[in-house]
Specification:
single chain, 137 residues, mainly alpha, two-stranded antiparallel sheet, 5 helices
Length: 137
């Protein structure tokens, strides 16, 4: 899926900035406290309507965030927080993808992430995947 970021409205950019701010707040807090960020990902609940986190709380699991914040009529998303900060463009892309899915009737609530989003979290799966594919490099 391709999202044309040049055709976005000021409201969409403002909402994306709020999504990125909600993520970056926790990333920077963990970097200041621990020096390198979280070892395990966390999740923050974000409203699709305006990109704001209703409470700003970092939940340990996506399921905890979904349980605490059931979907609003205008939709919720649960953003994964890792070691890296989020750019506004990344915030826009995930916000628009979730809005498009919600408009088509897809509601993400308690689904666990099957494929890790970040490369450092995928590294434990790579050797096992290559062995399963009978690839010998």
């Amino acid at each position: 899926m391709s999202i044309d970021t040049t055709a976005c409205t000021p409201e969409e950019w403002d909402a994306a900035k709020r999504v990125a701010d909600a993520v970056n707040l926790h990333v920077l807090a963990h970097k200041a406290q621990l020096g390198n960020g979280r070892d395990t990902p966390g999740y923050v609940a974000v409203r699709l309507a305006d990109g704001r986190s209703p409470d700003g709380v970092l939940y340990d699991t996506r399921r905890d965030a979904a349980r605490h914040w059931p979907p609003y009529p205008e939709g919720m998303m649960y953003v994964k927080i890792g070691r890296d900060d989020m750019s506004v463009k990344e915030g826009l892309i995930i916000l628009m993808m979730h809005r498009q899915a919600f408009a088509k009737g897809v509601v993400f609530s308690e689904e666990e992430i099957v494929v890790p989003h970040r490369l450092e979290l995928a590294s434990p799966f790579i050797p096992r995947t290559l062995r399963g594919a009978n690839w010998h490099g």
